[in-house]
Specification:
Two copies of one chain form a homodimer. Chain A is α/β, with parallel strands linked by helices and about 550 residues long. In chain A, about 45% of the residues lie in helices and about 20% in strands. Chain A folds into two domains: about 325 residues, Aldehyde Dehydrogenase, Chain A, domain 1, CATH 3.40.605.10; about 200 residues, 3-Layer(aba) Sandwich (Aldehyde Dehydrogenase, Chain A, domain 2), CATH 3.40.309.10. The first copy, chain A, contains 17 helices and 19 strands. In chain A, strands 14-15-16-11-10-17-18 form a seven-stranded mixed sheet, with helices on both faces. Chain A has a five-stranded parallel sheet with strand order 7-6-5-8-9, with helices on both faces. Chain A has a three-stranded antiparallel sheet with strand order 3-4-19, with no helix packed on it. The radius of gyration of chain A is 25 Å and the shape is globular. Chains A and B meet through strand 3, strand 4, helix 16, strand 18 and strand 19 of A and strand 3, strand 4, helix 16, strand 16 and strand 17 of B.
């Protein structure tokens, strides 16, 4: 209980934030505000560098070899780190053996140990994780610190809050009495939280911790064990996570095999074998739509939580300050080279233009001004580097080339992509955004996620047509976020209803320095489950409650009691 | 809100009962205690009789014909009632059109209308339902009143309580402010409960309302529409339910097409077409293990809640009063001719006997005394009728014959089955229990649900062996309930843990007049999801929370506000 008591004040604040959904975090969001920031940053970087070219020390069962094929998007050189390759039966067996004592422990013991895991990641490993994320996922320093660091820790705490709420809804004991004919029956009933079994948590290449941490913690808090399956391109952040989990759980008196890692290679993926393993009971998957669909259809009897992708949409009806709107949009389209599941891709613009206080601004002008805004952002390599960082995977460059040609054939290229020179990493894999102007006839081109800095400006008949196409694309092809600029309040009301039914989280008329797709733990719900982009809502009760069962036992009250 | 206010005191008591899990119900459980019981019973019966041989008046869309093939297990004569056969596209379209206004209504409006549905079923239709259940499911009068009447209404209220809890966990609005670099961002956020879509609720032949009512109410409360798919043998109780839902919803100002009925025939089942319909978003299924497995594997993208079956197990280690234990067991094995999903089927007995204060009672003697206890219960036809009622389906008799022959070949027949003469219905389809004595070698015989009054007494090596086999059979083959008689407290503790992990709800050392398999709403959890017997826990948060999504919209706070 000591760890629970230690972290209770934070948990209490987090519970309140989840209830009220206001802005709160126990962590400073700027690296500079980290305690003793300069020394911590330096030693985190040194710790990262010391890992390069070395076997990663992860003492887990069933090691049958070593694997490692990570290449830094910043240097395009291999990290040279190798990790244990595990026999998956051994991992499942070890996970299952670890569970009974963990499941029997009081809720407070599990929550305390898991809060300690998050706190340890924050206090001891945050800056190491920053470099690990940079050189695998390819994020900028600041995004690796915030989005993959403290924001992801917040998502983890949030998952614990909801797991606790769902478990506390089950009273551990009850007395029950009733007359049946001649008998007065008095029963004592015991209700147990029974974990569903071994969870497999897939982490994605470009944004591993933000989804994986809450998934892992939701499973662990409810008594399950977790096998982490990182993307072979982005292992190090998850390997550090797994090691910290194991150390903290062991120090708290639990079996470290509650958390292990199953690594594979791109040439020989393990995913299906893990999911179809007879001991797999829960799957959390973040990644491609194609495999995510396979997971949803084939995970049974395991339950599946997925976050895949879709075509996130923007509808422009009007703006009080069109330049401010286009600037915000441009920034968000450039952010981490649009390699976030929340990045906008499709911009639906009425052919007759966008309403402004100065009158209608025509379609062509809107498209051009948006392209200009993007172009301006990437002019200065230093600014470009901060916003766009790198391209995680070489195949994204190939996709961009293909899209450019198809877009040029079907419509026109609004903005050509080019590599930009990263000021700190001259070998970085970079690309400025590719923007294509098309009509709704090109739906097969834009109607699915085109991962990377690729966007489409789509000429629609009218604002109504734009909204109708955008929400239909979301409903049928998937979409997590949506963005609207509008001056007509009735139109906004219709858009809010249409996007709610399509299941995309809508941001309206936001301008200024906040990235439009910023999703705050404790306040912004992520993924609805209403369209093909997945069902893993961070975090609501549906994300946690199915991870455990309630088993009861009842017996007559002993006489005299 | 008027209806909500009217029913709020009951809801408040129900919330408290769900929290504390004590014994409570707003309804008297004995028919005699119903208000103005004699007149109500007579007019309910008259209303039932007036329906016989008539077209059932159900004014719903898409009617393309009429169907009806119900045969009373009491008279073995057709009821002669015909019901609308619906075009399923028309039902889905109508359901979908009905949803937006229902989903937009405040939670209180939905809960109020649904409490009114339950109250109307209770006040105006309970005794009609009793006869409808008797002459389709074949239950006794008292069971139809309690198990399929007031207890099922309780399960409905319980579902509303949890649906409310899950929805109230989502605040409808929040203010959020944070600094991003130079900008102070102030957002107002709106969170909507968005129903998942059209639900299809399958009701089973032998116990339709107890599972279907909570499923329907869980879906409706969270804003969905429901298409009810009754078993073609047992339509009338669900047709009455659907008609009452439609009338009450319409009177409350909502579209009656929120609830419709899709009837099929045994020769031309509609189940798969309903589940694979592109507008099907939720499936609730109670029925056979075979089709339940198909549902779980194929419902996607719909979510599925299932309650199928399994081999419910009994372990005998010891008893302070063996006769009392065997009497309770015998009664429960006879109850409704073991046609309940909670009926015990497999009795695991140590070869070296059962501990009692008088010493060990040997295996053969235990088996014989259990068979004698069953035989005594069914000697008197009046008592037999009250406990066993009828056999719902003719194929159960065929199965019993087959099991008798296989059991005799592999082991021995402990108790032969015979028809008994029902005192009130001379043509009733009846059968006294068949009991077979076997060894674990006959696992293929007893290791699945054998629906009807068929039980197996299984000779195990020891009490430990009995427990180990019983819980393994549950885990691998499914099981909802489990029963234990034991005098060794360590053994009880091990059994509680083993059954919790296998996912069966355990009752230990219960004797007296309460049927061992009685499951009380607000107190007893039903189905765990941890074994192949289904995943529809009545009722926990996991049963309700996935039925809706949370969609948010956020925009800058208007200046000056």
């Amino acid at each position: 209980m000591m760890l629970f008591d230690k972290h209770l004040p934070t948990l209490e604040r987090a519970r309140e934030a989840c209830r009220e959904r206001h802005c709160w975090s126990p962590y400073p969001e700027m690296p500079k505000a980290y305690p003793n920031a300069e020394a911590a940053a330096a030693s985190g970087k040194a710790a990262y560098e010391a890992m390069l070219g070395q076997p990663f020390d992860l003492d887990q069962p069933g090691t049958i070899g070593r694997l490692g094929e990570e290449i830094s998007p910043y240097t395009q050189a291999p990290l040279g780190i190798t990790y244990p390759q595990a026999d998956i039966d051994a991992l499942f067996d070890a996970a299952q053996s670890a569970m009974p004592a963990w499941a029997r422990a009081p809720i407070e013991a599990r929550l305390g140990a898991l809060m300690e895991v998050l706190d340890t990641l924050y206090r001891e490993h945050l800056f190491t994780l920053v470099h690990a994320v940079m050189h695998t996922a390819g994020q900028s320093y600041n995004m690796a610190y915030a989005g993959s660091g403290v924001n992801a820790l917040d998502r983890g705490i949030e998952a614990l809050v909801y797991a606790e709420e769902a478990m506390r809804a089950v009273t551990p004991k009850a007395g029950w009495e009733r007359r049946f004919g001649p008998s007065e029956i008095r029963l004592e009933k015991t209700y147990r939280i029974v974990p569903r079994g071994v969870a497999v948590c897939f982490a994605c290449a470009s944004f591993p911790s933000w989804n994986a941490w809450p998934s892992m913690l939701a499973s662990l808090a409810t008594g399950n064990a977790v096998i982490v399956k990182p993307h072979p391109d982005t292992v190090l952040p998850m390997a550090i996570t797994v090691r910290v989990c194991r150390q903290v759980l062991q120090a708290a008196g639990f079996d470290p095999n509650l958390v292990t890692m199953a690594l594979d290679t791109k040439a020989q993926p393990l995913g299906k074998a893990l999911i179809k393993h007879p001991k797999c009971a829960i799957v959390d998957f973040t990644g491609s739509t194609r495999f995510g669909k396979w997971v949803e259809e084939n995970a049974h009897p395991a339950i599946a939580f997925t976050e895949t992708a879709g075509c996130n949409t923007v509808v422009l009806q009007g703006a009080d300050d069109l330049d401010a709107a286009l600037r915000s949009l441009a920034t968000t389209m450039c952010m981490f080279s649009a390699q976030m599941c929340t990045s906008p891709q499709n911009v639906y613009v009425p052919a007759d233009g966008v309403d402004t206080p100065q009158g209608k601004v025509g379609f062509d002008e809107v498209a051009q001004r948006l392209a200009d805004a993007v172009a301006r952002l990437v002019e200065d390599p230093r600014k470009a580097a901060m916003i766009m960082a790198t391209i995680q995977a070489p195949q994204t460059l190939a996709l961009m080339e293909q899209m450019r040609d198809e877009g040029a054939a079907q419509g026109r290229v609004l903005l050509e992509s080019r590599p930009y020179e990263h000021p700190d990493f001259p070998s970085a894999r970079t690309a400025t955004p590719l923007m294509l102007q098309v009509t709704p006839q090109s739906r097969e081109l834009y109607g699915e996620e085109r991962f990377g800095p690729i966007s489409f400006v789509i000429r629609c008949d009218s604002a109504e047509d734009a909204l109708s196409r955008a929400t239909q694309d979301v409903k049928e092809r998937g979409g997590l976020t949506a963005f609207l600029y509008a001056t007509d309040e009735d139109f906004i009301a219709r858009a809010e209803e249409a996007y709610a039914n399509a299941g995309a989280q809508l941001t309206t008329n936001l301008t200024g320095a906040m990235p439009l797709n910023f999703a705050a733990a404790y306040s912004d719900y992520h993924v609805t489950g209403l369209n093909p982009a997945g069902n893993a809502t961070l975090t609501n009760l549906a994300f946690v409650a199915p991870r455990f069962a309630v088993a009861q036992s009842r017996r007559p009250v002993k006489e005299g009691s």
